[in-house]
Specification:
Elements: H1 3-7, E1 21-24, E2 34-38, E3 43-50, E4 53-58, H2 69-76, E5 82-93, E6 96-97, H3 99-104, H4 110-119, E7 122-131, H5 143-157, E8 162-164, H6 171-179, E9 187-192, E10 202-208, E11 211-222, E12 229-238, E13 241-248, H7 256-264, E14 292-293, E15 299-304, E16 307-308, E17 311-312, E18 317-321
Parallel strand pairs: 1-10, 7-8
Antiparallel strand pairs: 2-9, 3-4, 3-5, 5-6, 5-7, 9-10, 11-12, 11-14, 11-15, 12-13, 15-18, 16-17
Length: 337
């Protein structure tokens, strides 16, 4: 028997379980029998408790317990001896949540983690229950029953650190969540009310809340295998400075030669007057690490999903050129409306 099995031997579901996942879709399902919840932008977390043993497990299966000691301590103090819940770790930042604050927790120094856990405590937003407050495995029961067990659990423990994720069967409400202008969620997840919990399977449906922003093209990189543009470097203004915020590379091959000539005619340092692009990253190659600065003349509208630290966390999708938009009108306030 492993140490984990020994610590959680009374639990019918033990750490190591893969969380149920979702497949992407463009639209929410229209048929009846679906439940809708906000899709939170945090760290997915399965939480296990068996007596004095508490384990927080990431989506990858790796333990998160040491990085969020305040959450583990609160779970261990609840007046329920055994349970397993599924949720999302979040850290509040004003009226929204901070993904950067979550990432800062993944630090090797325990003293640093303890300091941050006191200064920026995390909460656990719950949306499913696998082992109920009686220690019974409910993962094979319909979502409607599991949701009832979860609501009863949250009401019983009365722990502010545990928050119940909103849920609705009203598709109009779910669409309103997608259309909302707040930055507290990044989409909607749809689940069948009659479905059991399916570990590791993509049986849920997720629709991301995608937004758009007008950005200045402050530079570009060449393609790794040809002397044509490979990606556009995007910028936004703040206090008169143009800051690099991300990139877009979804350019049509047929348009690249003409676009390259257009961009090369605008090459002029410094390009970005605030934060500038760095060197190699996960999306560059040895050839494409160098970038060419441009005069701030061109504006593009791009579609994005996540913003972290005033940057697009992922590559953006080019929607259209905006010759009607003045570069100075491209400011950061677009990202947080």
């Amino acid at each position: 028997m492993s140490s984990v099995e020994a610590r959680f031997r009374r639990l019918p579901i033990q750490p190591g379980l893969e969380p149920m996942e979702a497949k992407s879709a463009e639209q929410l399902p229209q048929a009846e029998g679906w439940s809708f919840e906000p899709k939170w932008d945090g760290f997915r977390c399965l939480a296990f408790r068996d007596g004095g043993a508490v384990e927080l497990q990431a989506k990858s299966g790796k333990p998160l317990t040491r990085f969020f000691p305040e959450v583990a301590a609160r779970l261990g103090a609840l007046p329920v001896d055994r349970f397993v819940v599924d949720g999302e770790l979040m850290i509040a930042s004003g009226a929204s949540f901070s993904f950067d604050a979550l990432q800062m927790r993944l630090h090797p120094a325990e003293s640093r983690i303890r300091k941050l856990s006191a200064e920026t405590p995390a909460s656990l937003v719950l949306f499913d229950m696998l082992v109920d407050a009686a220690g019974q495995n409910v993962s094979d029961r319909p979502l409607a029953e599991r949701r009832g067990a979860l609501e009863a659990f949250v009401k019983r423990v009365e722990e502010p650190m545990l928050q119940l994720s909103p849920s609705t069967t009203d598709v109009l409400q779910a669409r309103a969540w997608l259309a909302s202008t707040g930055a507290t969620m990044d989409g909607v997840v749809a689940k069948r009310l009659d479905a059991a919990y399916s570990p590791g399977e993509r049986v849920m449906i997720k629709v991301k809340r995608l937004r758009s922003a007008d950005c200045v093209v402050g530079g570009f990189r060449y393609s790794e295998d040809a002397d044509v543009v490979g990606s556009l470097l995007l910028g936004l203004y703040d206090a008169g400075l143009l800051h690099h915020v991300g990139f877009t590379s979804g350019l049509k091959d047929s348009e690249r030669p003409a676009l390259t000539q257009r961009l090369e005619a605008l090459v002029e340092p410094p390009g970005f007057t605030g934060r500038a692009p760095g060197g190699p990253s996960r999306w560059t190659t040895e050839r494409s690490t160098e970038w060419r600065p441009l005069r701030p003349k061109l504006v593009v509208e791009v579609r994005f999903d996540h913003v972290t630290g005033d940057r697009f966390r992922h590559g953006t999708r080019l929607l259209r050129w905006r010759p009607d938009k003045a570069p100075r009108q491209c400011t950061f306030d677009q990202l947080y409306q």
